[in-house]
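Troubleshooting entry. The earlier prediction with zinc ion gave an output that would not parse, so I re-checked the input for stray whitespace and re-submitted. Clean input:
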Amino acid sequence: MKISFCKKMFYVITVVLFVCLDDTYGSAGNLWTYDGEKGPDNWHLDYPHCGGVSQSPISIKTDEAIVDSAWLVPFILKGYDTMQNLTMKLANNGHTVQVDLTVTGDPVSITGGGLTNVYIVQQFHFHWGKEDKRGSEHDIDGKYFPMEMHIVHYNSKYKNFTEALNKDDGLAVLGFLFEVGKYNLHFDRIIKHFSEIPYKDEHTDIETFAMRDLLPENLDGYYRYHGSLTTPPCYESVTWSIFYQTIEISEYQLDQFRHTVHENYINETIRDISDDYRPPQCLNHRKIHCSKPVVLNSKTTNRNGRTSASATLVSVTAITSLIFLMKLFRIVF
Ligand SMILES: [Zn+2]
């Protein structure tokens, strides 16, 4: 009886230890950072997929992007305008601030955009820099932006996000680049709750808003390539769409991202979440496609991409008209 009891205790202790170790391992497995020993250069040691050949983000070179407007048609957003049957939870996960969506009715989803299926929204989150000159994960012709937003969708052919996560066609992420400009009312719906999630693993329910309000007006122009999650475990399961038109946000609002949410637990040394971007990865064998000719580039895009683009277009039209008139009146040629 005594031995049997001891044996039982041994089994119990073993199971408890296993559970504890497993939990410890689980936590340790999440210990990656954006700098130092556990930084991006070493992610592949703990997460082998991070050393793959189709990783994200990448540098987008506009003159190498292949235009394919027959394939890359405009997206159709479904439920992006609705606020019904939808709840939003804002969380600080120590790496970013993330809004998780739970839908009880028809899913919020995207189709079109060259995708072969319906993709359902799961969450959106941000990457930002300590300074305006950096923060985005993708760059356009070497130009970085102060922030980038990722709206993560999963392929509806899979049961849920977790099942889709590591499948080749599992995820579609819409990426939006930000520029410093005027105050953006829509983002205050998120920012005003930062004081409720100052530390890692804190979360709060927020009042629902229409996601379409966050996006630029024109979504027709975008780059397309196949890549990966930009954080461990870096699965190469993402169809990326990076939009030409940027989102304007004020310096003050960017500062709320930079200084009011921290990567640590309560009672630990405070360290702001900032510079939470992965450096560009090798393009390797991949090609970048785009939905229409790229009008904007790093020279024409600055504080207000649309104005610059319009100005460029107007200038080209004016010069063409002038040459035509000169020819007409035989002033030259
Ligand atoms: Zn991201």
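This one parsed fine. Helices lie at 2-29, 43-46, 161-164, 188-191, 251-260, 305-328.
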